[in-house]
Amino acid sequence: MGVLKKFEQRLEGLVNGTFAKVFKSEVQPVEIAGALQRECDNNATIWNRERTVVPNDFIVELSAPDYERLSPYSGQLGDELSGMVRDYAKQQRYTFMGPIKVHLEKADDLDTGLYRVRSRTLASSSSQSPAGSAGPSGGEQRGGGYGYPPAGGPPAAAPAGAPPMPSAPPPGAGRGPQARGQGPSAPLPGAQTRRWIEINGTRHQISRPTMVLGRSTDADVRIDDPGVSRRHCEIRTGTPPTIQDLGSTNGIVVDGQHTTRATLRDGSRIVVGSTTIIYRQAEG
């Protein structure tokens, strides 16, 4: 079951029907939850071969009417949203530099139904536990579990709204995402990352910064599938590598999650239409 679906089910059981009544406002909590997931993906920073750090402090700006409806429940809603972020991070193998917090704020320049999400990375040295770990009682923490800072101490807090800034990785650590099945040793000097995708057993090398997949003959990789749009999605070989939906009819599913943009790792499974694509990368 997807993280957003679990989030919706948790909300259904809160305070009997109170939340159901409040959530008839234009902005729905599941929309905010989806935006927080995208905020993590868009601001993911590779720390070393074994760690990708994402923001842990989120500010959700709401119009005055939506804020008035939701603010009485901001504490409980913030806890649920924080838990959703933690579940998503565990699934994506992201880590945090401090406790996860989600705040609601009123923005007078927004109309009803519109919202804005800002995020930042706030470091904390008071606790060191992996993202998604259990608390002392063995139960799931709400707003408390986070990834421990790498060796050398945590980075300085980023200014509000700014993407997290990478710090120097520990000695001997690589700079690319860890390939599955490989040890933690650093790549050889001068090694380059090779990237490719596999479709029905056929390998397609990624040799340019972008690769467009679709049903059109103009696509870099043509996929003969009626459920695939002419220009369906695009793989971008940045740091980290990502996949972006290009306004397709049926969208993309990455590692079981329906999304418009996602970070890719070696072995990521991408589904477009009825076609499954495996993303691969390796040093050398």
TrEMBL record:
Region: Disordered, residue numbers: 120-192
Gene3D superfamilies the record matches: 2.60.200.20, FhaA, phosphopeptide-binding domain (DUF3662)
InterPro entries: Cell_Proc_Reg/RNA_Proc, FHA_dom, FhaA_N, FhaA_N_sf, SMAD_FHA_dom_sf
Domain FHA, first and last residues per copy: 211-259
Recorded superkingdom: Bacteria
UniProt-listed PROSITE patterns: FHA_DOMAIN
Stretches with biased composition (Low complexity): 123-134, 176-185
Biased composition (Pro residues): 151-172
Positions with biased composition (Gly residues): 135-147
Protein name (record): DUF3662 and FHA domain-containing protein
Keywords: Phosphoprotein
